[in-house]
Specification:
The chain has 338 residues and is mainly α. 65% of the residues lie in helices and 0% in strands. The protein is built from 14 helices and no strands. Helix 4 packs antiparallel against helix 13. The radius of gyration is 23 Å and the shape is globular.
Length: 338
């Protein structure tokens, strides 16, 4: 990051200052956790990382107006397209499964999270990136991405730990947890507290984030791009590449039938009631590939990278409705018969 002729508004700089300050507090908390675990090296590393975020926070509070270099933004936009995006998603998924023992280590996973948060803060200095991520419709999607990442990491981490225990002849962790909780009052009180917290959170959200209400639908005023609800953007993305019958009927039906047939294809009785990957490689890999690669990544693509006329735009590229892209789709049969 460096000073540039581009300017940042006071509200953006204040927001980034608060953002980096909160990330600093997160790293200080993790450094304290490492110190409690007698991990002095880890505590020192994350204390230094907290210092880096603190420097960013102070810089933006003082109006330094640091922005992401324009060359980096252009490089990302030039390297990013629909094909490279999907290929990188598949490669990332394969690498995650291959190196799951390393990547699910708390320190490594925390480092990946910090890298994402750091790049996200830098990206918010770009007006185009800031506009698409700050759109009211897209804020919940950003939160869902982090939630999916956390749940995926947690499940795989528990699977890795159980696999290591099973290799040693020890039972999985779930077999050691025999504590029972009464519905009343333990569970009901927990649900009541969770309900109150969620209600307060939604009230605060509704005050500070306006509802994205638009004008009544009209055939004479069609939004560009016209997007389906976020949970259907995966199907809308497939319509770019396949016939509507294939994308809207055949492929979704195959996904549903495949999920139904999975227990009959992989009828292994191991792995019931506890997390594991080694004992259920096929089932876990297929479910994760179908959900993360063939659904979540397509939703992210349709939400953040599809702009006017459903053209692909880089994360730092302006959504120009006059952008022209050559139609280079080729039928699969043409690779074999022509």
């Amino acid at each position: 990051m460096h000073n540039s002729h581009e300017t940042l508004s006071d509200s953006v700089q204040t927001g980034l200052g608060v953002y980096y300050f909160l990330v600093m507090l997160m790293n200080l908390g993790f450094a304290y956790y490492c110190s409690r675990q007698r991990n002095k090296t880890g505590a020192a590393v994350w204390a230094v990382v907290a210092g880096v975020f603190f420097i960013h926070s102070v810089a933006y509070f003082l109006g330094a107006a640091w922005v992401l270099p324009i060359g980096v933004r252009h490089a990302v936009d030039n390297a990013m397209n629909a094909v490279s995006y999907f290929v990188l998603s598949v490669l990332g998924f394969i690498l995650f499964l291959r190196f799951r023992r390393t990547l699910t280590e708390p320190g490594v996973a925390w480092g990946v999270l910090n890298a994402v948060l750091l790049f996200g803060g830098w990206g918010m200095t770009d007006p185009n990136f800031q506009k698409i991520l700050g759109k009211e419709d897209n804020v919940p999607i950003v939160m869902l991405i982090f939630a999916v990442g956390f749940c995926t990491w947690l499940g795989m981490r528990k699977a890795v730990v159980n696999d290591e225990r099973l290799d040693k002849g020890e039972p999985p962790l779930e077999k050691l947890e025999d504590d029972k909780v009464l519905v009343w009052p333990d569970l009901v009180y927990t649900e009541l507290i969770a309900m109150v917290i969620c209600t307060v959170g939604l009230l605060i959200w509704s005050i500070f984030l306006k509802a994205p209400l638009e004008q009544p639908a009209s055939t004479s005023r069609i939004p560009n791009p016209s997007k389906a609800p976020w949970y259907f953007l995966g199907l809308q993305e497939m319509l770019v590449y396949f016939d509507p019958w294939m994308a809207g009927v055949v492929l979704p039906s195959m996904i549903i039938v495949g999920l139904i047939a999975m227990p009959y294809i992989d009828y292994n009785q191991k792995g019931n009631g506890y997390f594991t990957f080694a004992q259920r490689k096929f089932a876990v890999s297929m479910f994760l590939f179908g959900f993360l690669v063939l659904w979540v990544t397509l939703i992210v693509l349709g939400t953040f990278l599809r702009g006017p006329n459903w053209n692909f735009f880089g994360p730092f590229e302006a959504w120009d409705p006059h952008k022209t892209v050559p139609l280079n789709n080729v039928n699969l049969s043409e690779y074999f018969w022509l």
